[in-house]
Amino acid sequence: MNTHNFSVSELEGREQGPLLVDGADRDEDRFALDLERYWHEAISLKYWLSAIVIAGVLLGILVTLLSTPLYRASSRLEVSQVAADITNLDSLDADAKVSELQYLNTQYELLTSNFMAERVIEAGNLTRSEAFRSAFAIEEEDGLRPAIETALFDNISIEPITQSSLVDVNFSSPDPSVSAEISNLWVQEFVAANYEKRFGANIEARDFLQSQIAELRERLARSEQELVEYANANEILVLNAGGDSGSESAGQTLIGADLQALNTALAVAVADRVSAQAAVVAGNFPSSDPRNQLLSALSEAEAELAVLLSSFGPDYPEVEEKQAEVNALRSAISGGGQDLLQAARIREAELRSQVEAAKDRFLGQQGQGIRYGILKREVDTNREIYDALLQRFKELEASGAGQNNIQIIDLAEVPLEPYAPSLIQNLLIALVASLVAAAGIVYLRVTLSQTLQDPEDVRRRLGLPLLGAIPRNIEGRMVDRILEKSSEISEAYTTVRTNVNFLTPNGAPKALMLTSTVPSEGKSISAVGIATSFAQLGKRVLLIDADLRNSKLRDTLDLDVHDKGGLVSLLSNQVTDISAEIVALDDFGFDFLPMGRTPPNPVELLAGEKFSQIIEAVSASYDQVLVDGAPMLALADAIEMSKAVDGVIFVVETDRIKLRGIENALGRLKRSGAQLFGAVVTKVSQKNSAYGYGYGYGYGYGYGYGPEKDVERA
């Protein structure tokens, strides 16, 4: 009877009605279906997700209320490229030329380096700062320095201002004063560190020269003091500085000057004495001598006396008077020359004695002058070295006087209000975090779901054509809904029948078996629904109850057929007339072959040729034969029955059986050679129907659904 040999791939390629779309359409719709799946998974978890969001918001409020207020202080720096040194005086550290972006990024990294933390700790003496330690609750036993460094790095932040060379240095703490202090200290130390880096060599050289200059200054002062003390002790008075030799000559001392002056005066006195003596002897006096006037008067008087003598004779009174005048002048001239000569001799002798005395003092002082010269040369040497170092120090000051390229623009002020915690910010964070957590739960639920949620998974995961999706019934008995042609259940089975009609070129396969993975997946009621739908087309339909282990069709159809031998009697050859065992169900429009009594050996009954003969016999009399087979489980009943029918329709309940179990059951059927025509998905809820199956068939499907509760499991 298994005359149709179509593979699953061929069936997928066939046009199978409104629910069997081709592969291109499935690819286009897959993304939208996945989004809908996530959305409706979220709808099914709406209470849990709402609780997560509410808990997140409450947690944000609680964190805000319990958090310690933080105050943030901000200082601003200007970081410029390094400028050229305009002094051009032997710069000891050449500045590297780097790009502006690279330079700025380097400075930003340096601002948050361990080097800066160490400088701030040292400059602010934070290890002894009670305010800082109390602000961050740092105890001595915690290890002060590591704890302080951690507090600094956790609360310092750098915010470069876009499109500028400005950068804000922020520090936050529970104490506003500490925040302002650390922020200002940070920028000040950074500026100082940059200056030291740029001019560090000059600064070190200047510091060294400064210490050397101070030492030389002290040494020069000591040498000068020793020189003065030695001069005072030995009464060495220096009137003027010495020559280029750096020593002192005798003429430069007071004694030497006195000796020189006395020697000069002695020479003058000797000259005066010689002149006076010559004048006395020869009567010649120097032009400046007052006796020259007396000589002139004497000459005139003698001339007048000669005239008078020649005129009047020696006894003339006027001659006598003139003679007396000449005698007086001669006496005056003779006596004055002797006095002057004597005075010159006395002055010469006095000066000579003084020169001798000064010479003795000078000769005694020459030994002291040697020591004085040594001290004086030491003073001069120290002064020269001092002047040279001082000059170099001034040059280094000039070369190191370049302007720092990093400057403080604004110092931080003590903040008046805390910037954190922010209720709005915490609520937004909590809301976003809770939404992310909720989305993660939905994603994990969908991703890790091991059951069939989306009817489209029949194609994607199981590789079977989807013949139909049956909505979950929540109103009345299932059979009543099937008989009601306007119901969504009836329309769903009509769709299944339509798709079954397209399974082969000749229409629906004549003998079909329905099976499932486990009981109560809707297999039996689906057999009733499909049989009813075929009967509504005017076809002669026979439904065979072949679930020999746990038949539910008898109770589902509410039939009293205990007096019938049924299928079991036919299989065991207890009866041979098949028509006598068939029951006509006028309400449903099809005939029914009940199972009969539950046999002790179902597999043995189904494994023989009898079941195939029965199927072949009824197929000759009916247009459509449907077999309600046993579920797969770990049994061989369905496998044995599949050999007698044209193909198998697999029934899958949504959100119940793990896909791995379904795949195992399908694998067993395929390995046995059974022809799998497709699958029917049952009990599709509103969540599952969002994927486009089970609702929307018409007649207002989807309306009037209440809680998702099975009224009848078949």
Automatic annotation (TrEMBL):
SUPFAM superfamilies named among the record's database cross-references: P-loop containing nucleoside triphosphate hydrolases (SSF52540)
Pfam entry (one): Wzz
Cellular component aspect of the GO annotation: plasma membrane
UniProt keywords, alphabetically: ATP-binding, Cell inner membrane, Cell membrane, Coiled coil, Kinase, Membrane, Nucleotide-binding, Transferase, Transmembrane, Transmembrane helix, Tyrosine-protein kinase
GO MF: ATP binding; non-membrane spanning protein tyrosine kinase activity
Transmembrane intervals: 47-66
Chain coiled-coil ranges: 206-233
EC number: 2.7.10.2
Location in or out of the cell: Cell inner membrane
Enzyme class per UniProt: transferase
InterPro entries, A to Z: AAA_dom, Bact_polysacc_biosynth/exp, GNVR, LPS_length_determ_N, P-loop_NTPase, Wzc-like_C
NCBIfam families: eps_fam (TIGR01007)
Family to which the UniProt record says this protein belongs: Belongs to the etk/wzc family. Belongs to the CpsD/CapB family.
UniProt protein name: non-specific protein-tyrosine kinase
